[in-house]
């Protein structure tokens, strides 16, 4: 029997940006042990998608070309691989495909069941797909690195969230406010009202001198900074931190790795903590349930059809999304 083909968007080498994306017809993949085949209903983009194409993660990812990028998806299970007991054809799910497999810019994609969770009807495919890397990163930074308890039971903490209008930042604001926190946030002028509406107690325009100094208008010193922007030096954070304050840097470059090492070696009470997402299915399930309960929302920057994936790719490269960029069928 002839192989079933699907439409996909892929690239063949490092670099090239939007022009490097190619629309192709490729065979629909077959799920292996512990895997499911999904017909995709939505994908969301992350900065790591264009950074991977640019070669910033080489030699780790991608392992081989051509590569169908994108990790964050929502879809319907159409086939299950051997040994899959907890999903069946027809189930609606949200999944993290990971940087090794990728595959999100195909009509169909293979997902590992360990990083696939049910999507209830109250959560749209776009809302679910938005959650994956951005929501999981915000969750990990707050719960694991900053020690915020999302049931509100922990001690009160002052939190600063930079780039609070972005994918990670807008989830971080909402999740932080589920805990016992005071949240200061930074974003551009056009998003001040949005970030306030997500629950931030005070919001700074990062292009003003007060915003650039990260100074809390009400005089708070931060116990933790969920640092989702880039290009802010330790000397700007340091005077704003409480005595044991931590900066959790989700885009650590050479200078923050240096600060991390120096602070560790000198037993500094104020620390810089580099963070790399370690995705967990149970945390994704928790986030999907929060959306279902109306306690967390996905702000959608824009939606694009797969046939115009280039428009979405140009937007994520641009770095000015408000919330999540979504690609639908
Ligand atoms: N470590 C990990 O595992 C991990 C996981 C996820 C993401 N990341 C990294 O984390 C970073 C953020 O990711 P993201 O998905 O949230 O990005 P994003 O959605 O592309 O962020 C865009 C937003 O950031 C705002 N912004 C940019 N610079 C800012 C600044 N200096 N101060 C305040 N706001 C600023 C922009 O506002 P304007 O449009 O107004 O400028 C825009 O709304 C990226 O570098 C990404 O690669 C790392």
From TrEMBL:
Gene3D superfamilies: Medium-chain alcohol dehydrogenases, catalytic domain (3.90.180.10), NAD(P)-binding Rossmann-like Domain (3.40.50.720). It holds the Pfam family ADH_zinc_N_2. It comes from the Eukaryota. One of its GO terms (molecular function) is oxidoreductase activity. Residues 16-327 form the Enoyl reductase (ER) domain. Coiled coil: none annotated. PANTHER family: ZINC-TYPE ALCOHOL DEHYDROGENASE-LIKE PROTEIN C16A3.02C. This is Quinone-oxidoreductase homolog, chloroplastic. It comes from Olea europaea subsp. europaea.
